[in-house]
Amino acid sequence: MNRRIDEAVAARAYELWEQAGKPEGRDEDFWRLAEQELLNEDQSSPRRTPDTL
Prior knowledge:
Blueprint: H1 3-19, H2 27-43
């Protein structure tokens, strides 16, 4: 992944982790959830082009 995507995933994963009460040992779960959310958001974007996949 590129740095901008990693930063967006990290920020969203942190938000999700905070909202869940900051549970220990679940960082990978929140990272994957954030990745999936951002991927789904990107796929529904009207500005998305095949080159941005």
